[in-house]
């Protein structure tokens, strides 16, 4: 099998690494406008010739066509605004495609590609990272296990193993993306109908085994994606919340209230300056810790009835930084999830043809088994 990974950042590198380790993958092409230095864990594959670095300009359709032709699947780890174009070109080239999603409006446009994707005999699956992605597949599995579903609660957090005040947070992906999630309204199902909620609202405590202990959870955008619309009228309550160490949400609400997340430029001594850009520039060096090991914590709780009895299906995950290969927990749970999806597409192991999100496309059993093969272990309990 041959794959094209678009995007040479953390998640694209992790996805390529996962594919390259497989004997049934002959070549992985890794493309970006400016590839830069390869991650250390990829160097041996470039030497062997199994990994090919190519310059791909995602703004240029001809550049995309050139490298997509002949691929079994295309994995897009570029910024979300390229996802629709990449999906369209992949269909034209007869290649499956998947991406990290994160922007529901663009995902809805990608789902409109269902008919041409079916005609081309390929699948298009957006939202294939951690959240949205892995967490939605688990939520759907819980829903399918019950006869009637009352509520679905999804919790996900990327955290430092050794938190440092005041934010007790370190950058595990784009800080710009984090701020977007803290400023954009989230989507929930409330009394069977989709509704918007304010980011950083709905604060609650969630208990985990030590050493994590009690974390806080609050509404953010993106994670629930289109699931609220798929289950409208069928599930009374559905919500997605981000997990952080206690006290984080109050600090971020204060920073937001001061206008430091605003994008509209303001006058500073005669210069027009974006408060958000200043905040990112000032805080990134303090929040980026290349030597700091991270973890990812996830919980999905699906409540309803089975055989006439109240039943709760719960999934839990705590994954840690890979010290041997220097792969972060966020890269493992996000980049590896993207790679697993592409492999399932190429091997014909998805549920449907055409364009759909992973909760509708990906069978949970094989997916969870694939994660376990990579040392990412999902714990399922039913009570």
Structure, briefly:
Helix content is 34%, strand content 27%.
What's the gyration radius in Å?
20 Å
* Count of the domains: 2
Averaged pLDDT, please? 95
Q: Would you identify the regions where 5 or more consecutive residues have pLDDT less than 50? A: none
| Largest beta-sheet characterization | 7 strands, parallel
**CATH fold name of the largest domain, please?**
Dihydrodipicolinate Reductase, domain 2
- Molecular shape: globular
Binned, the helix content reads: 25-40%
Individual helix count: 14
Give the CATH level 1 class of the largest domain: Alpha Beta
Query: Which architecture of the largest domain per CATH?
Result: 2-Layer Sandwich
Strand order of the largest sheet: 3-2-1-4-5-6-17
Distance, first to last CA: 42 Å
Secondary-structure content class? alpha/beta
Number of strands: 18
What is the percentage of strand-forming residues?
25-35%
